[in-house]
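Teaching assistant here, posting this on the class forum so everyone can see the example we discussed in section. The complex has two components, and the goal was to see what a joint structure prediction looks like when all of them are supplied at once.
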Amino acid sequence: MTIPMSPQAANLWADYLHRVEQALSSMETQDVHEVIGDLESHLDTELEGSGEELSVTQIQKIIACLGDPDSIADAAGAGKQLPTPIPAFAYVLTYGSLGLFLLALLVPIASPGLLVASGILARVAVQPPAVLSTSLRWASFPPLFAFYLLLAAVLLLWPLALVLPFFATGGLLEPVLTGSSLVSRMSDFQYWLAAWSLGVFASGLWLGLAGLLHVFADQLAAKLFYPFWRTQRYPVRKMMFSGAFVLMCLSVIVLLFILKGITS
Amino acid sequence: MANEFIINWETQARKGLLELCILNILATQRLYGYDIVRALSQAGSLTASEGTVYPLLARLRREGLIEATLEESSQGPARKYYQLSPQALPMLQRMNRLWDVVATSVEQSRSKRE
């Protein structure tokens, strides 16, 4: 802001921008910042050449011309009229979906099926049938990632099967019981690979945490139920979570290969 | 209820028509946000308020219909200039054709009523 303002005028303007920001809160943060930036440069241009300090009356006049925050939100497609009332059946399906999701955590053997069912219920709850056909949205639904992870474990982590006897004989506890460290039994290459994959795992973890921060820094209430939120405006977050899962999955694969190498 | 309906209808109608006007204005010239707001104000009372133009510009830019470039200004802070994107021109022509049809249809329906 380059315009000199009286403290009262500055407060009034800041309050107006804050209310616009709140009215646009269902939009992506960068889009909100763009609109706020445009409004600020509107004010700058409006008062170009006037060297005098801006008074409260002048600011009130400009704000009146710009319009109330709700009308700006309406124009942006983030207005109050957009979220349509959620039908009662959607609540039933949503909680049913949540129930299945929790059940999947409690009953691991049935979790893939339960997670898919949970995902389907949630989609039906929040999307009209016409949108359901968008396969990409289905595929990017968070609970399904848990299923993908399990699928990846079955299809890609085949060494797990070879490692199982190692688990069976208490091999993982062996270093603890005998004092011999797994690291001491690694070749130089395995040691380097393990460090690398742990680094990748950590990157995935941080990406996931960054995704969570991105979620929680915005609208807490909406994001707590992110999978069930009506709008699908979070591609960045989806990408972050997907990236985190992929990185973590990759590193687990490498670590299991190393484990297999040590124990075979 | 009727009042709510008319407010909603007005909002939607204005929004759609404003987008068409913005694209038409930018089809012939390259302008920055404030100038677009002024041009629309001069064109009539289509804008409910000046602030509503900026979110529309942001959306049109996201949709790839217009392009924005920041340029230094000797009179103050950098200005964001907008221009129609090359791929928007056929779309704008189609929108204008549709508008002609809509305007004619509305006029015809009104003349029958009157």
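For the discussion questions: The interface with chain A takes residues 8, 11, 15, 18, 32-34, 37, 48-59, 62, 75-77, 79-80 of chain B (CB under 8 Å). The mean pLDDT of chain B is 84. Think about how each of these relates to the inputs above.
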